[in-house]
Amino acid sequence: MTSRQPSLSLIQGTVGLLILRALQRGPMHGYAISRWIRDRSSGALAMEDAALYQALHRLEARGWIEAEWGMSENNRRAKYYALTPAGARQLRKEISGWQRYAEAMFKVIDGTA
Amino acid sequence: MRPWNVKRLFAFPSRTRDEIRRDVDEEIAFHLDMRTDELIREGLTEAEARARASREFGDRHASRRALESIDRPAEPSRRIGRFVSEFRQDLAIGLRLLRRSPGFAAVAVLTLALGLGANTAIYSVLDAVLFRALPYPQPEQLVVVFETLENGNLNNVSGGVFEDWRRGQTSFQGLALLRDVNRNLRIGGTTERVSGIAASHELTSVLAITPLLGRGFLPDEDRPGGPNQVVLLTEELWRSRFGGDPDIVGRAVILDEVPHTVIGVLPAGTWIFPNHAFFVPAVLRPGTPEASRSMHAFVVLGRLAPGVTPAQAEAELKALRARLLPEYPEYKRHWGLAVQPASETIGGQVRAPLLILLGAVSLVLIVACANVANLLLARSLHRQQELAVRAALGAGAGRIVRQILTENLVLALAGGVAGIAVAHVGLHVLRVATADLLPISFTPRLDGRVLTVSFLLAVITTPLVSLLPALRSSRPDLNVTLADGGRGSSSGTQQRAQSLLVAAEIALTVVLLATAGLLMRSLVRAASVDPGFEPSGVLAFDLSLPETSYPSDEKRLAFVSLLLDRLRTQPGVVSAGTAMGIPFAGGAYGEFFARPDQPDSQRVTGRLDYVSPDYLQTLGVCLLAGRWLTDADNRIDGPRVIVVNQRAARVFYPDKPAVGETLIIAGNQWTIVGVVGDVVEGRLDAPWRPAGYAPQALNPSRFAVAVRTHLPPLSLVPAIRDAIKDLDAGVALANPRALDQAMDGTLRQRRVVLGLIAVFAASALALAAIGLFGTMAYAVTTRRREIGIRMAFGAAAVDLVREVLARGLRVAGAGLVTGIAAALFTSRLLASELFQVEASDPLVLTGTVLVVLLTAVLACLIPARRAAAVEPVIALRQ
């Protein structure tokens, strides 16, 4: 990725879902999470990094993820986040909520087409 | 490694304000650096990259503040959350480990289950008898008041003194006077003798019992000349004998041929002594012995006024006594009184044996814990690799210790749950064994309180079994362990720790064995006490004659003489007689005995019984000097002649023959006509006292009957019942018993306590043997290679056997020495249960040593043989 594409602005509250989904694969540090989100959406979903970190800390405070200092791939101390059982439950809930929301939206949109 | 300390173990990582700020800064810096590096790799210059990373991030300072303000309040819950999640992780590891080694799990859980279960069972009895509150409102206000002798011993209370207290006290909401009574209850054509309580009218208010039907006594009902012919029934009697008649209140019930109006029914269980079925007013008629200050026939129950302590109440009554002292009989000048919490009085008799049992069962639990700790220690060796890896990955010593504690908590809780099953079975056995030994109708049960204690015990057990293994595992020598590749090497420390545990187990076992030995010797001694008569072939039963039908001594004596004549003609009966106190039942008077020429020099309490002439012969007592009592002595106006026991003769006339001399008993002068051998009173293992047997005619107020037969004693009962009914349909026989069984019964408590202690000692011995066996077997296994080398160099098998045995015996010896020292100390706590045995009885100590040594040798034999059977070639090749 050489330059930033204009990106969809993120609906409020969806950052948390993206983070939880990212951590489903295993513990990651904040930078890796931001990269993963950018790569998975081919850059379509991007946000200010400050917002990502605030979301991370908020999720931690709610007990959905937990943080631990560890060694990064380039041997630096990095703060790793991992999903807690409560976070995993929350993720499942939010995903199914999104699916229902999206299905409903598509039904309406397709109906008018 | 960091030094191990408990504080780290439970202080969860908690961050200060500065630490939070540092963490946030570091996290942001890491992000920016990573992004910068990436952008540089994409071709930007460092300055460009840094600027762009910073732009993408957004307002760094604002977000720092935002992150800190999110983190700070979340810190405490984050800490707890982390602890909980680690705890769950450890629990999961613990469960997985148990599943992975089911053999180990079974042995460890079972061992703990036995220890915990036995503790739970014994504790439930203790709880029921000593700690559970009496089933009355504000039970802490209930007290028992005693008069006390010069030496401080508790005594019953006289009616006169009770009336002093009742009139003068302000410390109590009420005082109630109680006395056991027996009445012949006649319903239709059948009569049976039932036991009850004569009580002053305060009874129901002091106990705060609300009758199921009707009411309690009114103040008028125990007043001399008042409406005294009333009765309160227990619910049990009301249901079993009156069919639960809802209109019973107001009806008349015939007690000792006198109609008593039923005024109320007390709910089942409110009177905690199950053998009492009714309550009648205790009437203290002025001028009768009952109302005097010198007939000590009563128990006094009191309910303290709110806020008054037993000591304050005692002080008030003592002041009252001091004021009234001139009116007291001369001999009571130095008596006193005592106010005791009722719970203490009621549980008192079995407190000592119960506490001993609790102590013993706790030792068993400790031995069980030591054994499990030993198993864990051996297992920790196999886990060194795993734990070293965790330590290498950064787990602190505290974290590892916590992991081991949590794993073992799983074990202990599993043991606790299995222990409840053990306790359930044990409790059933205990209930049967102690059925009539427990003083009150409280039966032990596994209720919430007992189970809570059991759970706490399991939790306490955890650090006990974990301590050594955890200490060891928390600081593995990483280099050695990891380099070792997990083959496991048994260090000297490990074996020392195991030996220490086993030696401790043996020491505790020695204490238990010595205790069991002392109790067994005591039982044997008690059982071999000569009762002073021939108890087999004697039937005894109680009888009471109604006041109304037998108002005079003449009438009573006439009945006795008819009864004894009838009994003697029954087939199978050899002889029959009556006494107030037949052995093992109590009933005779305790009186002061003195020699006339040394009146006050030695006031000895003895026992005065009034007996029919052939009572002593019926029991089979032997006559040592003089003559028996005769029919000629047995006249209402007869002479005060008496037969005394050998003890009385020795105490008062050590210098000359007692026959022909006189004794002052209860203020009267008696001429000794005969001396008989000592006869047991209540228990074989109680101190024996001087006794005098006077002719029944001088006091036929109460009596029980003894019949000697060559048939099985209890087989006579139906015929005797009929014979009594023939004589008087209003009189009924009660409590028929064979005296040899009654005698045996007095040793029951001893037997039960001994049986339990013996089971505990045997369990401890088995556990210690298993522990020793395990340790030695383990040592041999880990040293196979060394043994192989030595054998290859020509060591003889017999030397190896000797070496293993010597090692085992060294451990056992250390345990023995410590144990004997401890036993000498603890056996002093047994004093109340020992009978004619010294706490340092050499026979018991020698026996204990032999049993332990023999067991130790047996436990070491298999490992020793295994050592000798090592094939050098195979061992070396491994």
Output the keywords.
heterodimer; A: 113 residues; alpha+beta; 3 strands; 55% helix; disordered N terminus; B: 6-stranded mixed β-barrel
Describe the structure.
The complex is a heterodimer of chains A (113) and B (878). Chain A is built from four helices and three strands. Chain A has a three-stranded antiparallel β-sheet with strand order 1-3-2. In chain A, strand 2 (65-71) and strand 3 form a beta hairpin. With 113 residues, chain A is an alpha+beta fold. Chain B contains 24 helices and 23 strands. In chain B, the strands form three sheets. In chain B, strands 4-5-10-7-9-8 form a six-stranded mixed beta barrel. In chain B, a hairpin with a 2-residue loop joins strand 19 and strand 20. In chain B, helix 14 (492-527) packs antiparallel against helix 23. Chain A binds chain B through residues 1-2, 4, 29-31, 34, 48-51, 53-54, 57-58, 60-61, 63, 66, 69, 72, 74, 76-79, 84-85, and chain B through 23, 26-28, 30-31, 33-35, 37, 42, 56-60, 62-63, 66-67, 70-71, 73-74, 77-78, 81-82, 85.
Q: Report the biggest beta sheet of chain B as strand number plus sense, adding barrel if it closes.
A: 6 strands, mixed, barrel
Strands side by side in the biggest sheet of chain B: 4-5-10-7-9-8
User: Rounded to an integer, what's the Rg of chain B over CA atoms?
Assistant: 38 Å
Within the largest sheet of chain A, what's the order of strands? 1-3-2
Helix content of chain A: 40-55%
What percentage of the residues of chain B does DSSP assign to strands (E)? 15-25%
- Uncertain segments of chain A: 1-9
Determine the oligomeric state from the structure: heterodimer
Helical content band of chain B: 40-55%
Q: How many angstroms separate the termini of chain B?
A: 33 Å
- The count of β-strands of chain B is 23
Number of strands of chain A: 3
How many helices of chain A in DSSP terms? 4
Structural class of chain A: alpha+beta
Percentage beta strand of chain A: 5-15%
Query: Overall pLDDT of chain B, averaged?
Result: 86
What is the count of DSSP helices of chain B, taking H or I runs of 4+ residues?
Answer: 24
| Low confidence ranges of chain B | 1-12, 484-489
Question: Mean pLDDT of chain A, rounded to whole units?
Answer: 82
Largest interface, C-beta closer than 8 angstroms, per-chain residues: A-B, 28 and 29 residues
